[in-house]
Amino acid sequence: MKNKFNPWHDVSPGDNLPDIVNGIIEIPKGTRAKYELDKDSGLLMLDRVLYSSVYYPANYGFIPQSYCEDRDPLDILILSQIDIVPMCIVPAKVIGVMRMLDNGEADDKIIAVAEGDPSVSHINDISELPAHFISEMRNFFEDYKKLEKKTVVVEEFLDKQTAIKILKESFEMYKEKFEKR
């Protein structure tokens, strides 16, 4: 029997867009497991265990009802003091974006803070994050696929306004791709 509910298509991206979005966690902070949404079933699938001895520096997931050039929903990194369980819907305040190329293909990652976590919810723009944390994120994403002989290039970290522009474009692309669904 086919699953009738798919988090990518059936969860709202949020009521306070574009400043606050719902992110759906696939990978908790601090793990080496690379989970991905199985687009057909709506369940999580273990894609692989990271080849390198590195751990996700933030909770990682996707924004529902978004779509990008890589044929996936828009990725989101949600900062929080806790590791958030997979498939949890997290209202998150958008603070910036990491522009990235994954094997030569654009693969932007929205950076946000968990709205319900008082340890980070006061942050309003990526410029407020410690420089070392930005370095850690850059290092993780540039290194985590090296032992797979794949290249990732982190181009730059940009502000909230740029992130919101990318977010809006991903919602438009989703409507164009899936409106007839």
TrEMBL record:
Superkingdom as given in the UniProt entry: Bacteria
GO biological process terms held by the UniProt record: phosphate-containing compound metabolic process
Quote the record's binding site residues for Mg(2+) 1: D70, D75, D107
Q: Where does substrate bind?
A: K34, R48, Y60, Y144
List, alphabetically, the SUPFAM superfamilies matched: Inorganic pyrophosphatase (SSF50324)
Q: Which Pfam families match?
A: Pyrophosphatase (PF00719)
Q: Which cofactor does it need?
A: Mg(2+)
Q: Which residues cross the membrane?
A: none
Q: Name one GO molecular function term.
A: magnesium ion binding
Family matches, as CDD domains: pyrophosphatase (cd00412)
Q: Report keywords, A-Z.
A: Cytoplasm, Hydrolase, Magnesium, Metal-binding
Q: State the function annotated in the UniProt record.
A: Catalyzes the hydrolysis of inorganic pyrophosphate (PPi) forming two phosphate ions.
Q: How does it assemble?
A: Homohexamer.
Q: State what protein this is by name.
A: Inorganic pyrophosphatase
Primary gene name: ppa
